[in-house]
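This part of the workshop introduces the protein records we will be handling. As an example, a complete record with its sequence and its structure tokens follows.
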Amino acid sequence: MADWLEHSVQVEVEAPIELVWSLWSDLEQMPRWMKWIESVKIPEDNPELSIWTLNTGGLQFSWKSRILKMIPNQIIQWESIDGLPNQGAIRFYDRKDSSIVKLSISYAIPGILGKIMDNLFLGRAVESTIQADLDRFREYALKVKSNPF
């Protein structure tokens, strides 16, 4: 039996939605701004799948995810299909001169681990990390905006 934890964080990026979308939807680039994500691989034969590796504090987890919904400039929704159980969505809101990026993620932790670890402590650590990830994404997007490829 597992306990599910859920977090939602957001950031405003002073860049057009098309740029923000193009950077985020290139999943293999995630390790550039996501601290715990070591790698993301997209199988050539099935671009709706992605293979993720997370590494934090010497603990490594991997999982395979499937895109459930993708609407350009609006949403990417996923669920894991094996490995670390997780699901979520990244939503994009166009504010004309800027974009709002909102990440909602849920993940399962084994019941015994949840009993050993304080869920509030774990939750705060994860939430502060993913908020910092979004802040790094904003900085990355602003750098790309000022120095296009």
Q: What stands out?
A: The first strand starts at residue 2 and ends at 13. The chain has three helices and seven strands. The two ends are 47 Å apart (CA to CA).
